[in-house]
Amino acid sequence: MIAFGPIPSRRLGMSLGINNIVSHKICSYSCVYCQIGKTTRKSIVRSMCYEPENLVNEVEAHLKKLDKKHLPDYLTFVANGEPTLDINLGKEIKMLKKTGFPVAVITNASFIDKQQVREDLMRADWVSVKVDSVNEKIWNKINRPMTGIYLDKILEGLRIFVSEYEGKLHTETMLIDGYNDATEDLKENSGFIAGLHPETSYLSIPTRPPAEKEAGVVSEMKLTEAWQIFQGNGIKTELLTGFEGTEAGFTGNAVNDILNITAVHPLREDTIMELIKKEKANMNIVMSLVRQKLIREVHYKGKRYYVRSFHL
Question: S-S: 274 plus which of 23, 84, 246, 309, CB 3.0-4.6 Å?
Answer without folding.
Answer: 246
